Each structure stands twice: as C-alpha cells, then as structure tokens.
C-alpha cells in the first residue's frame, strides 16, 4: 500500500469478506470468516448483516453459511457486458439459437426465482413472450430446475419451508418432495425439462453452468412452443443445451483462472 493513501478500514474488510466467500463454493460460517480474515466476530457480523441486507450475500440458515448473493453477480455483469469474456458467452448463446432456431435464455437464481440476464429470440412468427430482467418461479422452469440442482435436498426443503411452490399451470410441480425428486434427476442427467409447467403451450430444455469452483452460477435454456417439439428434435435440443452449458462453463473456468494469476 502506498504511503499517504487514506483507505477506509470497514470497506476494506467488507471487500475482503466478499472476495473470500466468492472463492468458496460451499460458503462460510461466521467463525470461518472471522478466523480466516482475523476480524472480530462482532465486527464481521455487522458487515455480513449489511451485505445480506443489500443482497451481496445470502445467509443459508440450514447450514449457517454465507454465500454469494445476486448483487455480486449484477455488479460483475456490469463489467462483463463490456468484456470479450461476455462476448464469448453470447457467441455460444447465439450459436444455440441459430442451431435450434428457437428462443434461448441465460438466467441466474435469486432465492426462489430465476432472472433472465440474456435472450436471443427465435425467427419463427410464434415466439416465447419473455424479457431480460423478468423474474419467474424457479421450480416451474427448466432454467430454475437446473439452478436448483446446485442445492442439497436439505437446502431445497429449507427454501420452500415457509411457502410451498405455487401452481402456474396444471403441470406445475407444487409438492416439495416431488420437486426434490425432479431435481435429483437433473443432477443425475445434467439437464432439466419443463413440460408446460410455467406456461401452457411451452416446453423448455435447460442445463446448469458451473464456475471454476464447480459451483452452479447460471443456466441456459431453449424454449420451444409445444407444437414444434417431437421425438426427433427433443433429443437434439437436450444434447445441444448440454453442450452449450459445458462450453460456457469452460469459458468461465478459463477466464476465472486467468483472473487469479
């Protein structure tokens, strides 16, 4: 540190906390953070409460661990929008849209919802009604199921402990245990399906995107009007979205490893 610089101690500590938690995919407890950074628990707790309130962190009451929040992603996205890194990711999204000729979304999870962060529309006259920034319930979408697959069964029960999943269509999974069974299939298969569970007449195929810590941080999906889905293209959409998710995960890992050098 250069002499004469007037640095804010509390702000430095808050940034240290965010950087530490970002490097730990399973999250950290108050004791972990206090010990690793040499910060008194009382001081650390005050900073953590503020960061949780502002959504830079989330607190998992089931494990007593702090994890990255949606605001950390949003702030990072502001930089990524101007970077070659995001250009590389959007090139993959565009390739999926071109090969499928259907609408493709990128999304992140915020609690029980998913938020669209990117979209490329189909060229078909019948398209999917959606917009960047839109929130939809995670349990009823392929994107959301892919993102929820990063949680344990215990974490899923905690997430829906206060209020069960809401019904959006006749096909929506509204029972927590049935949803957990569905998420287990996503973990096993590496992809998620939406059978008109969020919108009638729409099928979706989604897959999770991993960072260099093998933590699910986003998901990608193909949304298709049910009338255009058949036995032949269903398997094609699944393989296409799995390959795209892996390609984006690889881009993330390369970028993040370079940023750590």
Automatic annotation (TrEMBL):
Keyword NAD applies: no
DNA-binding keyword on record: yes
Recorded superkingdom: Bacteria
InterPro entries for the chain: GAF-like_dom_sf, HTH_MetabolicPath_Reg, Tscrpt_reg_IclR_C, Tscrpt_reg_IclR_N, WH-like_DNA-bd_sf, WH_DNA-bd_sf
Sample GO molecular function, one term: DNA-binding transcription factor activity
UniProt GO BP: negative regulation of DNA-templated transcription
Keywords per UniProt: DNA-binding, Transcription, Transcription regulation
Residue ranges constituting the IclR-ED domain according to the UniProt record: 71-254
Domain (HTH iclR-type): residue spans on this chain: 8-70
A Pfam family recorded for this sequence: HTH_IclR
Entry protein name: Regulatory protein, IclR
Source organism of the structure: Caldicellulosiruptor saccharolyticus (strain ATCC 43494 / DSM 8903 / Tp8T 6331)
């Amino acid at each position: 540190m250069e002499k004469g610089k007037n640095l804010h101690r509390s702000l430095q500590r808050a940034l240290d906390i965010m950087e530490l938690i970002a490097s730990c995919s399973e999250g950290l407890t108050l004791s972990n953070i206090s010990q690793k950074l040499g910060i008194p628990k009382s001081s650390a707790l005050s900073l953590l409460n503020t960061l949780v309130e502002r959504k830079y962190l989330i607190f998992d009451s089931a494990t007593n661990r702090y994890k990255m929040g949606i605001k950390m992603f949003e702030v990072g996205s502001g930089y990524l929008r101007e970077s070659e890194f995001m250009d590389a990711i959007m090139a993959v999204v565009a390739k999926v849209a071109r090969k499928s000729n259907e609408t493709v979304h990128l999304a992140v999870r915020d609690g029980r919802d998913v938020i669209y962060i990117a979209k490329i529309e189909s060229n078909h006259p019948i398209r999917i009604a959606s917009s960047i920034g839109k929130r939809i319930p995670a349990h009823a979408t392929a994107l959301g199921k892919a993102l929820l697959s990063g949680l344990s069964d215990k974490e899923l029960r905690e997430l829906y402990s206060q209020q069960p999943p809401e019904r959006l269509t006749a096909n929506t999974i509204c029972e927590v245990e049935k949803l957990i069974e569905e998420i287990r299939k996503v973990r096993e298969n590496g992809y998620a399906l939406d059978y008109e569970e969020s919108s009638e007449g729409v099928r979706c195929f989604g897959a999770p995107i991993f960072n260099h810590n093998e933590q699910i941080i986003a998901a990608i999906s193909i949304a298709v009007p049910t009338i255009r889905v058949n036995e032949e293209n269903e398997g094609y959409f699944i393989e296409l979205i799995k390959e795209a998710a892996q390609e984006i995960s690889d881009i993330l890992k390369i970028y993040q490893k370079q940023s750590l050098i």
